Every structure is written in structure tokens, then in C-alpha cells.
Amino acid sequence: AVSGDALAVGGCLRVSDGASVGRHAVAVFGDVALEPGATVGGRVLAFASLASLARSQDGGRGSLQVDSGLRLLASGGWLLVTTGLAFLFPARLRIGTWSLPALGFRVPALGLLVALTLVASLVAVLGLGPALGVPLVAALMVIFFAAKAVGLTVIGCALGRIVLGRWLHHPLPVSLEVFAGMLVLLAARFLPLAGETLWTATAVLALGASVAVLGVAPR
Question: For residues 178 and 86, is the Cβ–Cβ distance under 8 A?
């Protein structure tokens, strides 16, 4: 039994049958799984993806069909959002894409820094109680997914440029490059065994890329 909060970073948080968590069960870049008979006194939150977050609100349980359906729905959402961002801000995203090779290892380092900051913020706000904690968690969720969307758009643009450049040897619209790159990223997410691990690593890179395109890349 855990009297306080249970927090997992980069892995699955599993609450076994008969086990109890006194307050909140939270997974960052992972998932929360509650076995029958497990009890959680507070909220169950998973920040691996929109799909895991949606499932965690229903107690963390899900069948293979439900999990696949949620991942497909979330993948369609990411595809729509990233392509929309590329259509609205093509010049800014192009600058961010060009800046990624120059930044090199600093992109994943920035991503890890943002992720650790998110974890520290979650631990802090969850201790404030329902009145303040829940709205602040919601605000952190918005910031997290907004940053992830920007970063995925940049990574998708870079990947799409490479993929399409092998067949088409002339400039293409940024939105088309992002669409093609995101299709590759989202398809890799459904790979057996390694798919979710790759998606988690991509999420960390996306957080770093979002900082790069919004702050580090030249305006």
C-alpha cells in the first residue's frame, strides 16, 4: 500500500489486485494499469499520449480493441493538428526544421529538461488539493500537449522532407512534408513491442524540438 502519491516516469505504473494508493496515480511517458481489486484514492492520470490519458480517466483498464481504437483516434488527431500547424505557420516551421541538425544532441537534452520540469510541476500541484490541484493539472496538460504538437510538427516536417525527397526532387509545401512525416511516425507507433517505446522517445524529442522552434531557433 502507498499512503501518498504513486508516480512513474518513463514506464508503466501497475497497481496490483488488493494494492492501494492513498492519493494520485500518475505516469509520465508511460501508462497506468489498475488490476481488479486495486484502489486509488485520488485521480489516475497517464501522460504518455492522448489515448492513454483518455483510457486512464476510465480507471486505467482497456482491452486490445479499445486500446487500438483509442490509438487510432489519437493518431488521427495528431495528424490533423500537426498538418494544420504546418498550414498556418510554414515559414516558422521551416526555420525550426533547418535548425534541428545544428542543435544536435541539445534537442533530446531540452526534451528531457522539459519532461523533468513537468514531473516536478505535477508533484507540486498534486499536493495542493482538489481545489487548486485539478485546474493546475489541466493547465499542465494543455501546455504539455501544445508543446508536443509543435515538436511533432517540426519532426514530421524534417522526416517528410527526407522521405519525399527520395522520389520528388523539387520543393514541396511544408504541410505535405509534415503529413508524410507524421504518417511514418504514427505508423511506427503500431509496431509490435517497440511501437510505444518509439512513440515515447519521439515525445521527448518533440518537447525539445518545440523549445528549439519557439525559443532557440532564430526568428
Answer: yes
